[in-house]
From TrEMBL:
Name of the protein described by the UniProt record: Uridine kinase
Record localization: Cytoplasm
Source species: Vibrio agarilyticus
Reactions mediated catalytically: uridine + ATP = UMP + ADP + H(+); cytidine + ATP = CMP + ADP + H(+)
Phosphoribulokinase/uridine kinase domain span: 9-198
Recorded GO CC terms: cytoplasm
Claim: Kinase is one of the keywords in the record: yes
GO molecular function, one term: ATP binding
Length: 213
């Protein structure tokens, strides 16, 4: 996709806890000085989990959050298209503890660089068409599981038992069915997680080239 109005959308996909957020935040912080304040932003695919406020908590807990159907990619595509046209959007706020959206939204204005990160980004051809560069974090699943347990227990109020149960029931099977096959659509495949310095520098150089085109 050609760069529209000097807006570059970079998609970072990969397994849960593969280092997507880390590499996104690293690139964000390092590009701030080059593109200027308020000209770079990060959008997380998790914000676009479907509203489940009409369901009971028991029903929400049973949702397969690693299946594409759990996400409102229609709304995400609409928002990206608006941003490419220079229009602001209101991004939904998702609660991991309540397993649904809150009533709050976050205003997001057009940027020169938008970093989009999420597990299922590359599974949707509409999203792939809107991104100027795509990245896949190719981190071993055992490392991802260790990181996921630590993150979900410490930051999201989960129990280790519930995290492991979800991993066995949906996380790993959905990775094998949807996420891993989507790696073929990545422009850059990053091994060793979000601390791969060479991959970060290559991606930053590619973004700079897109901004100049």
């Amino acid at each position: 996709m050609s760069v529209n109005n000097q807006c570059v959308i970079v998609g970072i996909a990969g397994a849960s806890a593969s280092g997507k957020s880390l590499i996104a935040s690293t690139i964000y912080n390092e590009l701030l000085a080059k593109v200027g304040d308020h000209q770079i932003g990060v959008i997380t695919e998790d914000c676009y989990y479907k509203d489940q406020s009409h369901l009971s908590m028991d029903e929400r807990v049973k949702t397969n959050y690693d299946h594409p159907n759990a996400l409102d990619h229609d709304l995400l595509c609409q928002h990206l298209e608006k941003l490419l046209r220079g229009e602001a959007v209101d991004i939904p706020e998702y609660s991991y503890s309540e397993h649904t959206r809150t009533s709050e939204t976050t205003a997001f204005t057009p940027k020169k660089v938008i970093i989009l990160e999420g597990i299922l980004l590359l599974t949707d051809p509409r999203l792939r068409d809107l991104m100027h560069a795509t990245v896949f974090m190719d981190t071993p699943l055992d490392i991802c599981l260790l990181r996921r347990v630590k993150r979900d227990v410490e930051e999201r109020g989960r129990t280790m038992e519930s995290v492991l149960k979800q991993y066995q029931k949906t996380v790993r099977p959905m990775f094998m069915q949807f996420i891993e096959p989507s790696k073929q659509y990545a422009d850059i495949i990053v091994p060793r997680g979000g601390k791969n310095r060479i991959a970060i520098d290559v991606l930053k150089a590619h973004i700079a080239k897109l901004l100049r085109s």
